[in-house]
C-alpha cells in the first residue's frame, strides 16, 4: 500500500511530486523549505527557517503514521555554508537523541532566493 501527502503549493503541481510517500514501513519526505505564500517564513533567519522546515516534515510524517523518532536520515541543503551552525542548532534541538544519519552541503541556489535551507528525510516505521 502507498500513502501520499500532497504538496499544496504551485511547485507541487508544476513539478508533480508529493511532500511525503509511505510504502510499507518506508517513508520518504521530499526536500522541504520554509516557503510561504508571501515568500520565505523567517526571511534571513536560517535557524528559524530550519525550525519551520522540521515542523513541516513532522506534520508530513504524522499524516502517514510516522514520527520524527522514525527518521533515519536527513539531507540538508544550504544556500550558504556560513549558515551551517544556525541550521545545526535547530536540527540538533529536534533530533537530539534520535541522531539520524545526516548529510549537510551547500547547494547554492534553492528554488527561491529568500530560502536559506531545504531538508529531505527518510524514515522507517517499526513493524
SSE diagram, text form:
Layout (H helix, E strand, L loop, with lengths): L1 E5 L3 H6 L2 E6 L2 E7 L2 E2 L2 E2 L5 H18 L7 E8 L5 H11 L6 E6 L10 E8 L3
Parallel strand pairs: 6-7
Antiparallel strand pairs: 1-2, 2-3, 3-8, 4-5, 6-8
List keywords for this structure.
127 residues; alpha+beta; 60s Ribosomal Protein L30, Chain: A; 3 helices
Describe the structure.
The chain has helices at residues 10-15, 46-63, 84-94, and strands at 2-6, 18-23, 26-32, 35-36, 39-40, 71-78, 101-106, 117-124. By secondary structure, it is an alpha+beta fold. It has one domain (2-124): RutC-like (60s Ribosomal Protein L30, Chain: A), CATH 3.30.1330.
Helix tally equals 3
Morphology? globular
The count of domains is 1
Largest sheet: 6 strands, mixed
CATH topology assignment: 60s Ribosomal Protein L30, Chain: A
What share of residues is helical? 25-40%
Widest sheet, order of strands: 1-2-3-8-6-7
Strand content: 25-35%
Reported CATH architecture = 2-Layer Sandwich
Mean pLDDT, nearest integer? Answer: 94
Estimated structural class: alpha+beta
| Topology order in helix (H) and strand (E) letters | EHEEEEHEHEE
The total count of strands amounts to: 8
Q: How far from one another are the termini?
A: 14 Å
CATH superfamily label = RutC-like
CATH class: Alpha Beta
| Radius of gyration from CA coordinates | 14 Å
| Uncertain stretches of 5 or more adjacent residues | none
Amino acid at each position: 500500500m502507498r500513502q501520499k501527502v500532497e504538496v499544496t503549493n504551485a511547485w507541487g503541481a508544476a513539478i508533480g511530486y508529493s511532500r511525503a510517500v509511505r510504502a510499507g514501513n518506508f517513508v520518504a519526505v521530499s526536500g522541504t523549505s520554509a516557503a510561504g505564500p508571501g515568500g520565505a517564513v523567517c526571511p534571513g533567519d536560517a535557524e528559524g527557517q530550519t525550525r519551520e522546515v522540521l515542523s513541516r516534515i513532522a506534520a508530513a510524517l504524522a499524516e502517514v503514521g510516522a514520527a520524527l523518532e522514525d527518521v533515519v536520515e536527513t539531507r540538508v541543503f544550504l544556500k550558504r555554508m556560513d549558515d551551517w551552525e544556525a541550521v545545526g542548532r535547530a536540527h540538533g534541538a529536534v533530533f537530539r537523541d534520535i541522531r539520524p544519519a545526516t548529510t549537510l552541503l551547500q547547494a547554492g541556489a534553492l528554488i527561491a532566493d529568500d530560502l536559506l535551507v531545504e531538508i529531505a528525510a527518510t524514515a522507517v516505521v517499526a513493524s
